[in-house]
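Bug #77: duplicate submission created two jobs. Keeping one. Sequence:
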Amino acid sequence: MNWIELAIQTDAEGAEAAAALLNELVETGAAIEQTIIPDAGQTLDPARAFTVRAFFSADQRDQLQRAQESLWHLARLRAMSEPRTRELAEEDWAEAWKKFYTILHLGNHLVIKPSWLDYAPRADDLVIELDPGMAFGTGLHPTTRLCMVALETYQTGTPKMVDVGTGSGILSITAAKLGAREILALDLDPVAVETAARNVAFNHAQAIVRVERGSLDAERDCNQFDLLCINILAEVICELAPAVAAALRANGIVIASGILDYKADDVAEALKAEGIAIVEKKQEDDWVALVGRKTGSES
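Kept job's structure:
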């Protein structure tokens, strides 16, 4: 089977909007990457700081055309490059995204190592081995980095955790490396579930991380978790705020990201309305992560 790659370059807000649009049209979802310039001496245009990619199978040309038309309309509102396409054979598609990844060091001890690269870890490194495939959560995006650094700061002891919108599974694996005793990794996308399960196996974390297709369940998850990560979109976090609060035990920590800076107050208010006090706001470029703590006693 041949595949068609569709890519655009845009700013942070445009990347969020384009990815949401493409996620409605392509089963494998869209990937957001920070644009990499080979010559470090060049200055990156902030209006082209992110690349959004989606891959359509050869029999999805109708969806591809709809995506191109929708992106054209979106470009009337946001600074955005013309959509570009290229056709890839199956083997090329499987390798296409790998060239964008390198070994990343985050926080004090965290290291993201793509599975196909060699790395000699230092004694105190916590190495997360990753084969992201088409799933979101590679470490290239600021929202993922913000969550990982927040986990290193706020995860204490051996918490029970839920990871909502796990994507590649990177946050669940990070929490497992940091000492969580039990983790439920949830995603609605079957490709993400498959990818996360594979990455959990790469990191020998199957005994700790359980990957399932789905989202928070009010009955199943009530007062179940000490720690909750949700790296999705601001609007979805606001919608799920009651379920987030219900899932946390008293004094439980939530790390919420995927939030553009101008939407951070809306998310903070939605969480506060459910009894979650914001204890820190972390920001990288236009993206924000909020750390909150559930107040009161368990019901």
